[in-house]
Design brief:
globular; five-stranded mixed sheet; alpha+beta
Length: 1025
């Protein structure tokens, strides 16, 4: 009976420990690990998260030491769980009468059944297998537990089928079952090995306990505890030294060898053998084995090689081999290593044969579909000849605001804001663009489902015709469209279909006065056809003049920033360039950014120092308050953002990590902005990143083989701009053409539209050619699909570069980042403290005081088709400069349609900011601000001594008792994602009805201070002559 009670106590202990481990550690980490599986590289080669960061320029020994420490840190919880459970099993099994069974296949199955729910890595389960065997379990049972725990648990199985092609997942699963249920029983020995003697013996249970005297539960618990401690000491002393040694050896191997050496290499016996050997050797933590294999797949490693890694990673390791050698025999350890090594090679060959077979089938289907005559003429972007004069502004009554006072060379105009909109419940109400006259709608067809064409097109606002009302310009598949604001009630399209730009894929657009004549011009970037400047035709009697603007031959200038760098009055340009993004990932020469000195529309190009990343956002802003524009380049795909300090004559000086100015940046930067969230008159930086708050659900959608239900559920709600059927077709399209999916099966014929089927096959050919690294496949893309053919050819023209990353600023993934400016012009990360770190797949994110309470809020738009997740936008409501709260639902900004760009503007000039945002696959949306609370003030600056619209000027207002309250705004033209706001400063004043001082720091370096009682709820124009 005593033994039974001790058995029950140990069993309860095992259940409790296992449950706690899963609920507290293992399951909560699943979403985080799944989200990180979207990364194509990791800081440390043996772990998914580096807790200790090796110094820059560290030598080999130092790197190995840091990797070893990171491995210990990552594995210690799982290892501790393995030791605790190993000792528990060792003790528990001693209490059970040994009933030897020679049914080896049955024993293996029972071992698999017991090991699968444990869910610990191959390194952590090895001590458990040792404890079980030495307590009396059969060899095949112990080995089955060792192999099933890291390979068949719910974490691994879920991730396996979520992020890998179906055939890879099935191959790994079948190979694992064969290993456990067939090979393990066959190689297991009936004769038990000679066991080591524990320090203290535990009396085994007799076959039948005839002693009627019962020991109390307290005594049984004490006795079981002593037995357990003896077992723990025994297991600890026999396994932990080996664990420490395995971590060191694994770190050595990881720095002596890199799996990406085989990227682009042929699939043959030598390469498969090398890969299988290293994969079997590596002691990787649970789930990181799949994360690393998928990172290699994303980096271009051949699918056959990836299949080998998917099996060998996590199935065995150098630590497992050590434990097997010590517990069973060295010969068995070598035999198991060789078997797993051989299976890895066989799976690589099998995968390669299957892929080639499916590829031949796919090519036959492609030729068949492409040869099918079109039912209708393919002409998505007609290049009809249109007269080069198509600008027809509508007549407006211009009101010149009266001058309220003059001071020196400054004159100040003032005009009262219009009456506020009536409150309609939530502060913002939403309308579709067509209801306001904005007729352009983004369309995502299979032909255009290419990175970055499915990221959406840009929008900009500004007073194009100087009538006082903010107009908007949007990039389109035919260049651009300009919409005139009709007294805040609606918009009218007045400028579009310019012959020179017709058929060009417009991506980014800005309204900026590049010839400094006081009229906003149109700056447009296009995909693969250069950058253009469309001069404002109004001062030239409506004549349209278009100038090319250099961008170094880049495929796309995805981001542009403007400021007067040399103080000659002409705004200069920074080109943030982009090259195929997801298809190339790593630095390429074609993505080199430039800064252009504008010498009255003659441009002088200078390349920017630093690693050329895939740039999404560029911003010129004075971050160190020295009067000169500094520069921030926001990059995607794990190329660190680059920060530069500007000067008048020496260009830009790159900020290094060791300079201690910028502590951290985001690894997939979509957008960046400068503001002053706490009103301390120091600039703060906000960076929008790619995050996946729903973890595995999103990753499964991106990399999995089938369409998930989440997108379809949103389609069924009726909340999308798309009707239900179109929304469902769109979700199907994202599954078929997602460049992250390694699906080798032809599914384009599932689309009902014959033209879409053909376009789908053409776009898939681009993906097939790049994934197989076969440039000849591009030749199969024929007219009229010239864009897709060019895209395919560009992939093989990429000039990949290698750079030292020693000076790069550290990056963080998964979270947005808020850097608070300090008095010494350095920055501190306050993201967690201010509760601003939440990230979805974020795009444009900008500061603005949307409720006029004195404090700048943050609006973040989210969504990308490949996630098939329709996450709501984020609105972070500023809590008096201390923190932020998520208030998108409260404010009526919780839209779930995918958006990437928007502009802040006061459409009706009532003193509060409205929003116009794109959708990636439909019409624009207009969010009208109906807030009736809080006073406000708007300031326009006109500078005849510098650039007219005062880009780079800083405005500080002071108000309240003794002028103790203050705010700061910088007039900037850059940042964000494909988004530009009018060069106007907007201040919310809360309860305050006036301000007492305006201080202007001009872009030319001078400072002006105006002491005056400026009434709230007015728009002021400060004109410097």
């Amino acid at each position: 009976m005593t033994g039974n009670r001790k058995f029950i106590i140990l069993l309860i202990f095992i259940v409790g420990v296992t449950s706690s481990f899963w609920l507290v550690s293992r399951y909560p980490a699943l979403d985080n690990k799944a989200a990180l599986s979207g990364s194509e590289a990791f800081e440390d080669p043996l772990t998914h998260q580096a807790h200790f960061h090796a110094p820059q320029n560290a030598d080999f020994i130092t790197k190995v030491a840091y990797t070893t420490l990171n491995w210990y840190e990552t594995n210690w919880r799982g290892m501790a769980f393995g030791l605790i459970l190993a000792a528990a099993f060792y003790t528990l099994l001693k209490y059970i009468p040994r009933q030897s069974s020679d049914r080896r296949f049955r024993n293996s199955f029972m071992g698999m059944f017991a090991g699968t729910p444990l869910g610990v890595c191959v390194n952590c389960v090895a001590p458990i297998a040792k404890g079980m065997y030495e307590a009396g379990s059969k060899m095949e049972t112990a080995l089955a537990v060792m192999f099933s725990s890291p390979t068949l648990n719910i974490v691994v199985i879920t991730m396996l089928f979520s992020i890998f092609p179906f055939y890879m997942a099935v191959m790994k699963l079948l190979a694992t079952f064969i290993l456990i249920l067939l090979i393990v029983p066959l190689i297991s020995e009936k004769t038990r090995s000679t066991l080591e003697n524990p320090v203290g013996d535990i009396n085994p249970a007799p076959a039948c306990d005839l002693n009627p005297k019962q020991e109390s539960w307290a005594k049984a618990c004490q006795s079981a505890s002593l037995d357990y401690l003896k077992s723990l000491r025994y297991i600890f002393t026999r396994t932990v030294p080996l664990m420490l040694l395995a971590g060191l050896l694994g770190a050595l191997a990881s720095h002596l060898w890199s799996f990406d050496r085989l990227i682009g290499m042929p699939v043959n016996l030598i390469n498969l053998s090398l890969l299988s050997f290293m994969g079997t050797l590596m002691p990787l933590p649970i789930a990181f084995d799949l994360m690393l294999a998928q990172a290699m797949m994303m980096s271009g490693l051949a699918p056959a090689f990836v299949t080998t890694l998917v099996f060998t990673f996590g199935t065995f390791s150098i630590y497992s081999a050590m434990i097997v050698a010590r517990t069973f025999s060295v010969f068995l350890a070598i035999k198991l290593f060789a078997i797993i090594f051989a299976i890895g090679i066989a799976l690589g060959y099998a995968s390669n044969s299957f892929i080639e077979y499916k590829h031949v089938q796919w090519l036959e289907k492609y030729d068949q579909i492409i040869a099918t005559p079109d039912a209708a003429t393919h002409n998505p972007a007609s290049k009809t000849k249109i007269p080069e004069k198509n600008y027809s502004p509508l007549p407006m009554t211009r009101v010149i605001a009266p001058i309220i006072f003059r001071e020196g060379n400054l004159e100040v105009h003032a005009e009262a804001h219009a009456s506020r909109n009536p409150s309609l419940g939530k502060p913002f109400t939403q309308r579709l663009g067509p209801d306001m006259g904005i007729t352009y709608s983004n369309a995502l067809t299979p032909e255009l489902f290419l990175d970055p064409l499915f990221f959406g097109r840009g929008i900009a606002s500004g007073d194009f015709n100087l009538d006082g009302w903010p107009d908007i310009a949007v990039a389109t598949h035919n260049g651009f469209e300009l919409y005139q604001n009709m007294y805040g009630k609606r918009f009218e399209k007045i400028f579009s279909d310019v012959e020179t730009l017709n058929g060009k894929q417009g991506i980014n657009i800005a309204l900026v006065d590049l010839n400094n004549d006081g009229w906003l011009d149109i700056f447009l970037t296009t995909f693969n056809e250069g950058n253009f400047l469309v001069l404002n035709p109004l001062p030239d009697q409506g004549r349209i003049k278009i100038l090319p603007v250099p961008n170094g031959g880049a495929l796309l200038t995805s981001a542009s920033a403007f400021a007067d760098l040399n103080r000659d009055g002409f705004p200069d340009i920074v080109n943030g360039n982009y090259f195929l993004g997801i298809s190339t990932r790593k630095p390429v020469r074609q993505a080199t950014d430039q800064w252009l000195l504008n010498r009255n529309l003659t441009f002088e190009s200078h390349p920017l120092a630093g690693i050329p990343g895939q740039t999404h956002s560029t911003l010129l802003s004075d971050i160190n308050a020295d009067g000169y524009p500094d520069l921030i380049i926001g990059n995607d795909y794990r190329v660190a953002d680059t920060y530069y300090l500007g000067s008048l004559k020496e260009g830009f000086k790159k900020i290094r990590q060791q300079d201690g100015i910028i502590p951290l940046t985001t690894q997939n930067t979509m957008s960046l902005d400068i503001g002053d969230f706490n009103n301390d008159l120091r600039p703060d930086i906000y960076l929008a990143n790619i995050g996946m708050s729903r973890g595995l659900d999103v990753v499964s959608n991106i990399f999995g083989a089938t369409m998930q239900n989440s997108g379809l559920e949103f389609c069924d709600t009726g909340q999308s701009v798309l009707d239900r059927e179109t929304c469902r077709q769109f979700n199907q399209l994202t599954t078929l053409l997602n460049p992250e999916k390694q699906d080798i099966t032809e599914h384009c014929t599932r689309l009902e539209n014959p033209q879409w089927v053909k376009e789908c096959m053409v776009t898939r050919m681009v993906l097939v050619a790049s994934s197989r690294n076969t440039p000849s496949l591009c030749e199969k893309i024929l007219a009229p699909f010239t864009l897709n053919r060019s895209y395919c050819q560009k992939f093989f023209q990429a000039d990949h570069l290698k750079f030292s990353r020693a000076d790069e600023i550290p990056m963080q993934g998964q979270f947005n980042l808020l850097l608070s400016g300090q008095a010494d012009h350095t920055f501190q990360d306050v993201s967690q403290a201010t509760q601003i770190a939440t990230a979805e797949w974020s795009w444009n994110a900008r500061f603005a005081d949307l409720d006029n309470d004195e404090w700048q809020d943050l609006f973040v738009v989210n969504g990308v088709p490949i996630t098939q997740e329709f996450a709501a936008n984020n609105f972070f409501h500023n809590q008096k400069g201390k923190s932020f709260t998520a208030a998108q639902e409260e404010f009526g900004l919780d839209d779930r349609d995918h958006s990437s760009s928007y502009t802040y503007l006061d459409i009706d000039r009532d003193g509060d900011l409205d929003i116009i945002a794109n959708t990636l696959y439909g019409p624009f949306k207009v969010y009208t601000n109906n807030n009736t609370q809080g006073n406000s003030l708007t300031v326009r600056l006109i500078d005849e001594r510098g650039n007219r619209f005062c880009l780079g000027c800083t405005l500080i207002i002071r108000y309240g008792p003794n002028g103790e309250r203050h705010q700061m705004r910088e007039i900037k033209m850059g940042g964000g994602f494909h988004s530009y706001d009018a060069p106007v400063a907007h201040f919310g004043l809360g309860e305050y009805k006036s301000i007492q001082q305006m201080e202007i720091i001009w872009s030319t370096g001078e400072t002006s201070k105006l002491e005056h009682e400026f009434s709230a709820n007015h728009e002021y124009t400060l004109h410097r002559h």
